[in-house]
Task: inverse folding
C-alpha cells in the first residue's frame, strides 16, 4: 500500500518530482496557498505525511504544522525548505514537525525522510542535525556560564 502524501511547495523542481514519482505514493503534488487550504486538504485526504515549504505565502510554518497535526493526528509533518537556521528548526520541531529537510538535500534524502515519518520516526538531515546539536550545546554552555557567572 502506498503512502498518502500532501505536498505543499512552491518548488516544483525536477528532482523533487522524480523522488516523489519514483515511489508508489498517493497524494497531491501541487502547490497551494495558505494554511486554510492545507488544513482542509489534510482533514479531507488524511495523509500519512504532509510535506510543506515554510516559505509559502500566508503560511506560518510552526502554526501550520500544529494545525495539520491537530486536524489529522496520524499525519506527520516534514518541512522542506532552503532555510538552515537553528532557531527556525527549533520552532518547527516545537510546532509538531517530525522532520526537517533542506531543499539542497531533497534528492538524496526525501525518500528516506518520508519512509521514516511514515513509520512514526523523526528525520533530520545530517546538516540539520548538526545545527540542532550546535544550538543545544551553545545554549547549555551559555546557561552553565551564566550560572557560574563566567563571561561567554
Result:
Amino acid at each position: 500500500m502506498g503512502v498518502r502524501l500532501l505536498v505543499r511547495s512552491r518548488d516544483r523542481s525536477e528532482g523533487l518530482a522524480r523522488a516523489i514519482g519514483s515511489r508508489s505514493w498517493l497524494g497531491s503534488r501541487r502547490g497551494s496557498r495558505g494554511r486554510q487550504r492545507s488544513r482542509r486538504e489534510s482533514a479531507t485526504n488524511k495523509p500519512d505525511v504532509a510535506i510543506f515549504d515554510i516559505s509559502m505565502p500566508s503560511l506560518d510554518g510552526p502554526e501550520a504544522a500544529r494545525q495539520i497535526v491537530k486536524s489529522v493526528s496520524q499525519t506527520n509533518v516534514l518541512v522542506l525548505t532552503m532555510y538552515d537556521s537553528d532557531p527556525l528548526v527549533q520552532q518547527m520541531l516545537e510546532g509538531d514537525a517530525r522532520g526537517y529537510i533542506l531543499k539542497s538535500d531533497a534528492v538524496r534524502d526525501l525518500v528516506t525522510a518520508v519512509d521514516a515519518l511514515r513509520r512514526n520516526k523523526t528525520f533530520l538531515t545530517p546538516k540539520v542535525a548538526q545545527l540542532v546539536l550546535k544550538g543545544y550545546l551553545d545554549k547549555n554552555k551559555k546557561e552553565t556560564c551564566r550560572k557560574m557567572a563566567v563571561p561567554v
